[in-house]
Amino acid sequence: MDDKLNKEEVWNKCLLFIKNRIQETAYQTWFDGVNVASITDEDITLLVPNKFHYEWLESKYRMLIEESLKHVTSKSLIINYTVPITSKSSQEIPSFSKKKSHYPQYQPRYNKTKIFNSQYTFNSFIEGKDNQFAKAACESVADAPGTTPFNPLLIYSQTGLGKTHLLQAIGNKVLKKYPDYQITYLTSERFMLEFISSIQKNKSTDFANQYRSSDILLIDDVQFFEGKEQTQEQFFHLFNDLFEKGKQIVLTVDKHPNQLLGIKERLVSRFQSGLMVDIQPPDLETRIAILMNEAEQNNINLSYKITEFIAASIAFDVRKMKGVLVRLLAISSLKQVDIDNKLVQQVVREMVGEKEFNTISIKEISKYVASKMNISERLVRGKSRRQEIALARQIIMYLSRELTNLPLVKIGENIGKRDHSTVVHACKLIEKKITSDDIFKNQINEYLSVLSKQ
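^ thats the sequence. predicted structure below, dont judge the formating
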């Protein structure tokens, strides 16, 4: 680094680089309030307003910040974050720093206190029927790693539903319960980059030995191994070595292993050789509970009506739903405005996009379900109690709750002027039938999939 550049000059040059690559509103929201606390030849510490701000920068802009630092300093600096002591979120922010890419300085099992986000625990993971089994399996593994039949443990789901939270919750619990254990936690991408670097430096043996000394191996997003044949080969041998030693292996992936392309069959077979657990998108009640917990943890006052609106607007991505809270907090604190209905609608619209915000109508849902079940839409809205008509009506209520932004009272009013309690009862009946009837569950999932794309 040029010694003539002080920390402010470096960061100001970085900000200019960033400003030219993102929208003005995004820059004002997320970078205007960020300052540099310190900078060395090894790392940089950024001063952010609060924990939410840190989480947003880390998840959305980390790569851009790294790129700007590389451009200005010609170095791959480690990025750390801190918050002002006076901040409500002044608890220590763990460093999820992007280490220098060259081997062998990145050794994930060392410096354990900085591996895991202290907020990602089993207690902070909101449990619902859609993730209950996955959470229980993860807790069992964390209690006795390597000694349960759940080895390997593979967690699969679409993005934003809590796989990384559970993976880090395992790490946090093992770290506390077994402080002498060697814990290795990283993404499959980081594994590949280290492997390539070790080959370039003729240190592939050191690389292999580093990982084979692990007591527990936690690998996030193994779908990244697709098409990386040499990396797969290296991981295959590591997997076998750890498994034969009775060491615990936990993996996450964004799809069922059978849907992985470009990964050798023998490795996929290893993935499936233990316990596989999936996480389904949470229902409305669970989403509301997640938001209320997140708001409480971060001292955000939200009415139930606002919470329900956010939860109803974003049905399939918990991470995006939490992102709405992050943006609300940022706008509220930086612009000194209250979080009201108008602001919430504006932020939700920005986060999900205009098309998704203007959700499907109950009439469209009714028409679709009536057509699929060969029932008159008029009868569904009427008073008939015939079993097939009542079931169609209940399905429409359930789908309306999941796919629209409307409160339950409005849903009932739009379906034959039923009251709130009728909608609640209908949704519970459908949920019960989903858990006991796989054919019915697949039918409802098909309806949800089709209607969510309209």
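The chain has four domains: 7-82, 122-278, 284-358, 362-452.
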